[in-house]
Specification:
This protein is of the alpha+beta class. It contains 4 helices and 7 strands. 24% of the residues lie in helices and 23% in strands. The longest helix is centred in the first third of the chain and has 12 residues.
Length: 137
């Protein structure tokens, strides 16, 4: 996986897990959109689309990148919309937005969270039109 190799080259410890993506996507939704009654909403195709359907104070574009660069990333998880792979990243303080922007295929919608799911940084596949997004509870 390209992103794991990039992060390892920067000195981060990356542990790869298979078949955990569905669990992390579910936990992400429950953590950041916990107050939503989904029975009244049509499910969106991509998790990041929920940013546009709810009134939450997220940052977008350059502001999102700046917030991500500043947030404590000592220990975090990376997962994807279309893959069940999950990366646990330790000593991630040097992780930058540009490290996550060139993924393709099943790895093109990238979700990053801290271990407590207190903040999230999302790089959608439609980078030119949408995102990236940063949200802290």
């Amino acid at each position: 996986m390209n992103v794991a190799m990039k992060l390892r080259k920067k000195g981060m410890i990356v542990t790869e897990y298979e078949n955990k993506g569905r669990d992390y996507r579910k936990l992400w939704f429950e953590s950041f959109f916990e107050t939503i009654d989904v029975s009244n909403h049509n499910r969106t195709n991509f998790l990041w689309e929920w940013f546009h359907t709810q009134n939450i104070p997220f940052r977008k574009g350059k502001e999102a990148n700046q917030a991500f660069e500043k947030v404590n990333k000592q220990y975090c998880f990376i997962f994807f919309q279309e893959s069940n792979d999950v990366l646990k990243v330790e000593y991630a303080s040097e992780m930058k937005a540009k490290d996550l922007c060139n993924e393709v295929g099943e790895y093109s919608d990238v979700y990053i969270v801290d271990k407590g799911f207190n903040w999230t940084y999302v790089v959608p596949h439609e980078k030119e039109e949408y995102g990236p997004y940063f949200y802290r509870k």
